[in-house]
TrEMBL record, chain A:
One of its GO terms (molecular function) is hydrolase activity. This is TatD family hydrolase. SUPFAM superfamilies: Metallo-dependent hydrolases. Transmembrane segments: none annotated. Keywords: Hydrolase, Metal-binding. The keyword Metal-binding applies. Pfam families: TatD_DNase. Gene3D superfamilies: Metal-dependent hydrolases (3.20.20.140). Belongs to the metallo-dependent hydrolases superfamily. InterPro entries: Metal_Hydrolase, TatD-like, UCP005295.
UniProtKB/TrEMBL annotation, chain B:
NCBIfam families: EboA_domain. This is EboA domain-containing protein. It comes from Azospirillum endophyticum. It comes from the Bacteria.
């Protein structure tokens, strides 16, 4: 089964992770722009970050046979710095048109401040203007109220719910999200937001319609293989393969394809690895022999050579 | 604010002389000259005993919630800060924000812990609210814990988020000064929602959440 991780911060991960993800069946990812663990102090830092999301990181993923898409936006954790907001939103507006950008995100609330209201509204307007779907981060604290407030704001702005993915759901926010008509993401984290057994329970209760799972793996304690691990848990619980495939493959494609920049037919074809390629003169190799795959069928994919093993 | 220099002189006359020299013409907070002495102060007075005896109530009267937790370098830095902010007049909020941005973790913690010592501390509310959003736990705890500033000056939404974040990050709520007086129906509703989510997820409910929710409410409105 081919897998799509619709929310993962690969910039913070290693080439070992890319190789392991591909071995586990992940052939496509979406990387939302987020923060770096501490707030950036200059708007220019965002520009280099956006450039890497549409540039080097796409290339790096491709070197391991993984198609990389991204979402761009000013995240709510950094939306409260008045010196940054205007120049960063100008950059978002500019970079949203780049190839590989499949949504505005992750945007939403953190502390639910008036500044966050303003930045969210402005980016919702940008999404509508660029014809892009919206990927929403829901807050850790006061989560139910934050989820409702986000849905209300999107409804008032006139965004059709099928163009919105609301992420980081739990047992109490999922019914709210599904009732709104939006798509519902679930972040499977080691021991916090959601775990595999709880996710199995949610799928048994609600089915597969508009439901996705992701790892949100980043620089913190997280696991880039949580999508395949959740697939295994669902299989073990007897959930039908078609249901699982809807959740981990068809739904992410259907949602992000609304951008017009992700071709579902292309995703059905294997991305051949060619580590002889360079990105602006740079390579992921450190002197190793480049691995080169022909365009193979899914069943014929062999284990990618690990950098350093040549 | 002569008390802090006197307290420093009682511990190390040489250090007091260094402080006098640094404050002969106090550098404005956030300037390179200020940041240099502010950093250098962290390497002085390290072996000094914490405040004790009569010093404790005197420091509490100045606005320090828990003087026994104050190290020698923190006392010295607070003396520098107080003099620099006094000298900065109306430029102080911008200067202190700039100083905070280029400070390391302990320097940031000192600025936050010293806020109540500064003239007209309400001017620094935006800085304090921003610090509540820090993901660096010692910085967050410096504003949220053992500090009279939040209860005195933070608006209700900011204060409530700070309390929830303390629960999330495991900082004991007993360290939040003035929590009982600032507990409102909105805060209890947020805490109640959080407890409900944790129970639905089959996860442990932090004991402090129960304490917050089960405390008798000052306004008589029951917890959801």
């Amino acid at each position: 089964m081919k897998l799509f991780d619709p929310h993962i911060h690969m910039t913070s991960r290693t080439t070992d992770d890319y190789a392991a993800m591909r071995r586990a069946g992940i052939v496509a990812v979406t990387e939302p722009a987020f923060w770096l663990g501490q707030p950036r102090t200059h708007a220019g830092s965002f520009e280099d970050y956006f450039l890497s999301l549409v540039g080097w990181e796409r290339f790096r993923a491709s070197q391991f046979g993984i198609r990389h898409y991204c979402t761009l936006g000013l995240n709510p954790k950094e939306a409260n710095n008045p010196d940054l907001v205007d120049p960063v939103l100008d950059l978002v507006d500019l970079y949203l048109e780049k190839d590989g950008v499949v949504a505005v995100g992750e945007i939403g609330y953190d502390d639910m401040t008036p500044a966050e209201d303003d930045i969210l509204s402005r980016q919702v307007e940008m999404a509508m203007r660029h014809g892009l779907p919206i990927m929403v981060h829901t807050p850790h604290r006061d989560k139910k109220a934050g989820t409702r407030r986000t849905i209300d704001l999107l409804r008032e702005a006139g965004v059709p719910p099928h163009r919105v993915l609301i992420d980081h759901n739990n047992e109490e926010t999922l019914p709210i999200t599904l009732d709104s008509g939006c798509w519902a993401g679930h972040t499977i984290y080691p021991g916090s937001k959601m775990d595999e057994p709880r996710m199995v329970g949610l799928v048994q209760a609600y089915g597969a319609e508009r439901i996705m799972v992701n790892s949100s793996a980043d620089w913190g304690i997280s696991d880039p293989l949580k999508v395949p691990k959740t697939v295994a848990a669902m299989e073990e619980a007897g959930i039908p393969a078609a249901t699982i495939e809807t959740i981990v493959w068809r739904n992410p494609i259907a949602f992000y394809a609304q951008s017009g920049r992700l071709d579902p037919d292309e995703l059905e074809r294997t991305l051949p690895v060619d580590q002889r390629l360079l990105f602006e003169g740079n390579t992921v190799l450190r002197g190793q022999k480049p691995m080169v795959e022909a365009a193979l069928s899914e069943s014929a994919i062999r284990e990618p050579a690990m950098p350093g093993s040549a | 604010m002569a008390f802090l220099p006197a307290l420093i002189a009682a511990r190390d006359p040489g250090c007091a002389a260094w402080l006098d020299a640094a404050l002969a013409s106090p550098p404005l907070p956030g300037t390179p000259a200020f940041m240099r002495v502010f950093a250098a102060a962290g390497r002085r007075l390290r072996d000094a005993p914490p405040p004790g005896g009569d010093e404790v109530p005197a420091l509490m009267a100045l606005g320090i919630a828990t003087p026994a937790l104050w190290s020698g370098p923190r006392l010295l830095r607070a003396a520098l800060l107080a003099a620099a902010v006094e000298a900065a007049g109306g430029e102080a909020p911008a200067g202190l924000t700039s100083a905070f941005r280029t400070s390391d973790t302990e320097e940031r913690a000192t600025i936050l812990q010293a806020l109540m010592l500064l003239p007209d501390p309400a001017r620094f509310t935006a800085l304090a609210a921003d610090a509540c959003r820090s993901s660096v736990q010692p910085v967050f705890e410096a504003i949220a814990g053992d500090n009279g500033f939040p209860a005195a000056h933070l608006a209700e939404p900011v204060f409530n988020q700070m309390v929830l974040k303390a629960v999330f990050t495991g900082m004991p709520l007993a360290r939040i000064v003035g929590l009982a007086e600032r507990t409102t129906p909105a805060l209890r509703r947020m805490a109640g929602d959080f407890r409900s989510e944790r129970r639905a997820a089959g996860r442990v409910v932090p004991a402090d959440l129960d304490l917050l929710l089960d405390a008798p409410s000052l306004d008589g409105i029951p917890t959801p």
